[in-house]
Write a structure and sequence with these properties.
- The chain is an all-alpha fold and about 40 residues long.
- It has one helix and no strands.
- It has one helix at about 5-40.
- The chain is rod-shaped and about 55 Å long.
- The chain starts with a helix and ends with a helix.
- This is Transmembrane protein.
């Protein structure tokens, strides 16, 4: 498969969007767990 510059850039953009969509819930869950642990120690 040969991609032009536009196709390669578009594919990279979709990959980045997919990775961000995966990372956002992980970050939110991690911060919620950290906040719960911090609150329980107070």
């Amino acid at each position: 498969m040969v991609y032009g510059r536009v196709g390669r850039r578009s594919r990279r953009f979709h990959v980045v969007k997919f990775l961000v969509a995966l990372l956002v819930p992980v970050i939110l869950l991690g911060s919620a767990i950290a906040a719960a642990e911090w609150a329980s120690t107070m």
